[in-house]
User: Which sequence fits this backbone?
């Protein structure tokens, strides 16, 4: 479920974002705790290994290796942060781009409601069918990119059952063969049906037809963009480079950040805290940022913070039908408003 | 209240931005002073604790821990700054995006004024009602995202009372059931009423109707975008990562930046100033930047610098009515201008 | 005056940007020299103070403080640069956004010239009045945001005098009361007058009227955006954070960068140059960057590099009248061109 | 082939991106292994050279040089990372810009299907020809920028053979001489043919013709943008600067990162690991990021991750013909939907 | 000449960008070699000066100064890189923005070809003249911003001679006085001529006229944007700050990076290489990046990598005439395509 929290921080009060830290749903803790446990386990293993299982001479070697690794994690050998910053910013822009490409039928339904006329059955049929086509198209596209929607509609029959398609249409849809995603077909039906409605006089003039066509094209463009966002990912190589950077950093930390015997007087090793507080902090921080990337690189999954695609599909069809059917020419009486002078 | 200050710094004079430092309203001081007091309190506690309550041996341990913590805050273990930079830039872009999505009725009213004709009562009624619908829609959306507007209109009755809606319309509005925000309904009424006005000949041609529809769709798109900005926040995880980074940094500072006994000759501890000037500076600086983030992540709250939503609502309805009613075909005589040749 | 210099560096020749360094108008030297003098004065004061006015013991204390401060300015305690980079980039984007929002009447005048017909007086009157309204609107908006324009037109009477408004129109304008900026009123007049011209047949068809309305809306949108850029500044808090960062940095420099007695053997204090070359360099550099921010945060002031609003206003009205009056249907004879085959 | 992987990481599960590390196709390993081998070879050569081929005195010199070089690679002499970050971000934006400029005929075909009428042969001929012209144009442009498409259509005859062009049209195309890319010609044919269809009454009204023209212009704009992306590259100088930075960094590493004799007690040279783990890590990381740049600077090549231009061409023509021919006015019967009330 | 090289690096092969290093045209070497020679000369001078012309005591002083300067260039006193990164990114965005604002007549010519009818002389005359006006306008604007175009057309007579303008038109053009750039005049002629063509029935309907007007306005907007890009440069102050940063950095390098006598045992001065390899590398790198900025800040100059304005002007007029004259209603016979079923 999308996690909205801006209302909670509407005002920049004392404490500010601190209240956001005590949430589990959609939180960094929930995303990260497994990785943290694994990291702690491995760290613990090496700690025990170093303290109890090595001969004095082996310990010396281990300490030398640890110091060497530590040098790597302290200086800027691998600038994890920097590359994460660039990567997450890119991913964030794509994430928002995908959201704003989500096809919403609101413009289309307003136009259909105002321009496809007739309160009789034929009129209702035309308006409802047009909107159904538009919604069907977005369901088809979302099914191919969202795991949630795909679970809800594993086959086309499920779509028919949910009322987005009639069996006639399904047959028609399947009779046309194409090697590629056929999400655009219901929109072509829309275009043809609108053309027919013009011939029947249900659409009263050419300009209204044009308006329908324009909004249809806007709608289609969004479906198409969504499809392409899914198809063309951030180049795999980039994601791999970032992942390797973060993982290797912590691989070296597991050894390099061991507390060495304070008595041996290694530099910056005067204190044996057993728990590597700073390293855990860093783990939390860097891996947390990488998780942000994982979260937003595909917002159509089932994470807490992913888009509510199924809910949006329901909203869209409900609202479409309301607007073109129940609300068609169904106006409250037009009376003078309160401030009429 | 929005804090405008650019006029004061219109010219890059001597001193420049310095005059902006002496303001309380909307200032960093106002936002930050509570946090600063808490930080100072905690710092003071540890300072007293270290100086007067510990035995000599405990002091030694404390010093070792302090040095360890200091190491963490001095080097780049947690690059607070960098992550703040990226985060605030993202938040800033959303902030401005929200502002530019604010639905202003100016285009719509100009179009209604020029294309819905008739100086008689029916004409006035049509124009006023159309603009009222548009304004009503934005009130409905703002009510759901702005705490200020919600306080002003806690129930729909308050909206009726304020004259944005008639009681007929309220009944109509409530009779249509939808599980989702119904802000778009008055815009569907607009669409249907415009269609009716065309039938009555008040809108004289199809092209004028299309113009009304186009501007309506632009207006709706802005309402919708505003709604989605509110629904889809910056992923919670990202905000948490940033907050934890800043908070943990200063948690370590509270101990690591204590002035240790200069006589013990610790490196960089030659001076006991009691007041950690630099650390306070840093606190001011980093927490201040985080506060910028808090401030702009939801510009519809009640901060000094948040958008003046209520004022804008008043402006919009006033200006709408002026434009479509008082100013309708109410032109000054057209005379030759001064430079007529 | 806007300082254009790209022509000088059109070619990346030897020396390149170096020739830009020897300019006074709009230069960094002109903007900065006062601040530099103040900084040098304060530095000199402390220098004299340290060298001649302190006892040997006091000097020791001063040196300890200086070393402490220096530590602050050398390491990354306050990362002035980074925050400046982010801030100036934001400000730059707004700056260019404001420039591209400047309402230019070119599209409108071309459309008026081609679609409002009649070479007789009435035709000329209509075309000139329409363009005058558009220009008047931009003058009203610029008057409220630009100090230069406000100086030129301190009252509405000055606008009348300059020929942008007739006295009839002024009376009309003032008779309509609104608590908010009324820059949009002349544009409503435009809309109504265009509508009238259509009735009179001066605008020959509905599509031409629509074209006028569309360009009007584009024009209005720019006026409105300009107004909002002015109203909604970069949050004050952000500007304050940046300013404090830069100022405190140099406050510490004034003490921390003093040349300490080389004989005392402090680290990196082997040379007494009297003039802190590097610190001045840094001052020049960081304060210069901050000045860039000051310069561009409000491009409607009176800096050398601010937009030439008054000149643009003159250009717009002159060009508008030329296009719709002198050039109306005033074509050179259409003859075969040189390459006619 | 484009490598889509977002579905695999739809959910931010445990392990997250780690599963992406074990892929060969489109992976960083595949892109980098040759460079890595060369680097290892050269490093090995110097290693053997230093250990076995030098006299003791020569070794001393080598060590001094190595220490000198190491200093260069450790500190920030050449900030490879930073410049890579800026460069790759620029390249990434261009890359996505190119993708979104890819001319897809979907809008055009929907408009042709709904507005060019007649189920008879002439109607079909018109619709098919119009769409063929559009597709032909994109093939012509892609041929000039994509190596893959150029291999598929080495001559114009191949395009004729593939059915995008008739021999008549080829003759026509070649008879018109221009020194520049002639990809726009089929679109002029489209414009003229649409105009003819209007005369024949196949396009029923002027508004439908305008719609065809508008979509044609959108389509052409994309073709044109693609052409210009190809023509105007990121300035060569920028690419050279980045490449030199990365290459020189590793040139110095090859000597500076040699393990020096631990017995000589050079600082940070206490351990002889033979394999320079960190340096390889860095190589992997920095060169990997540069490879990302190489990959995306021209997405029309034959890399694993480049755009599937040939596949898209096939899709476009297939889908175009389906939409305007098979699907023309070919609607499933319009029946009441499931939720009809 | 624009330097296109992406085809060469279409595939991310072994070696990748390395092949781009061996080019002279448009290369960093060509841009930089003079500066490099000067820098080497100055460095050499100080080197000789220090080694041979100073007494032992003067050498001591020189060494102290050199060490002082070196400290400045090694640490982050002036973060050249960072400020270059921000500056070049800004400049790059403007550069691409300018390119995409280049007025191309393609849309206009397609619209003229499809909507201004008549194969007779009058028809041809109208179409050719309209396109000539559009091209003339872009020549006028480019003449004022591009040094290349200005060299080609030093006076308006040259434009007449090249066939972009008739002598009648020149007289007309000069008779209209304006203090500002008059590039928009031919576009007003276009608008008026199109209006006349509508009256004559050459443009058959109002919608076609509107299409002409819309495309005209798009074209004009691009001309205007280009003009403003030229007028409003990146603020001079910003460019100066960046230039001073880079230049002062290398001014200090010239002394600070001298090889001091290794026998004196200064830290990091164990080796006398005579040639300061790293410093040259840095010079190459930083100055190279600055040169990128110089190159792209004005893409209308005569650099190797600047836009081919003259070539584009030729292309535009040639292509315009082809499209509206030779290709007017000149279609290949419409026959069934290969895949007709």
Assistant:
């Amino acid at each position: 479920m999308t996690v909205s929290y801006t209302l909670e921080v509407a005002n920049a009060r004392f404490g500010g974002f601190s209240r956001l830290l005590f949430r589990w749903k959609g939180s960094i803790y929930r995303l990260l705790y497994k990785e943290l446990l694994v990291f702690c386990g491995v760290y613990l293993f090496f700690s025990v290994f170093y303290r109890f299982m090595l001969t004095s001479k082996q310990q010396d070697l281990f300490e030398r290796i640890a110091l060497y690794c530590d040098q790597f994690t302290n200086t800027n050998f691998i600038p994890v942060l920097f590359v994460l910053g660039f990567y997450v910013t890119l991913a964030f822009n794509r994430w928002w781009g995908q959201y704003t490409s989500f096809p919403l039928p609101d413009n289309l339904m307003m136009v259909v409601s105002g321009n496809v006329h007739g309160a009789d059955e034929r009129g209702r049929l035309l308006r409802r069918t047009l909107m159904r086509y538009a919604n069907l198209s977005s369901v088809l596209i979302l099914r191919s990119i969202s795991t949630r929607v795909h679970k809800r509609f594993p086959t086309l029959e499920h779509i028919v059952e949910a009322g987005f398609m009639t069996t006639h249409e399904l047959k028609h849809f399947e009779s046309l063969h194409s090697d590629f995603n056929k999400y655009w077909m219901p929109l072509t039906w829309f275009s043809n049906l609108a053309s027919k409605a013009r011939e029947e006089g249900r659409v009263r003039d050419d300009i209204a037809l044009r308006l329908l066509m324009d909004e249809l094209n806007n709608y289609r463009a969004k479906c198409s963009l969504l499809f392409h966002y899914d198809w063309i990912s951030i180049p795999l190589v980039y994601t791999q480079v970032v992942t390797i950077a973060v993982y290797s950093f912590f691989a070296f930390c597991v050894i390099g950040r061991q507390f060495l015997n304070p008595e041996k007087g290694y530099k910056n090793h005067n204190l044996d805290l057993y728990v590597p507080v700073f390293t855990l902090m860093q783990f939390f921080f860097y891996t947390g940022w990488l998780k942000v990337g994982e979260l937003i690189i595909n917002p159509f999954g089932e994470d807490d913070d992913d888009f509510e695609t199924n809910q949006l599909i329901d909203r869209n069809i409900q609202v479409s039908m309301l607007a073109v059917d129940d609300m068609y020419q169904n106006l409250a009486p037009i009376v003078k408003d309160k401030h009429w002078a």
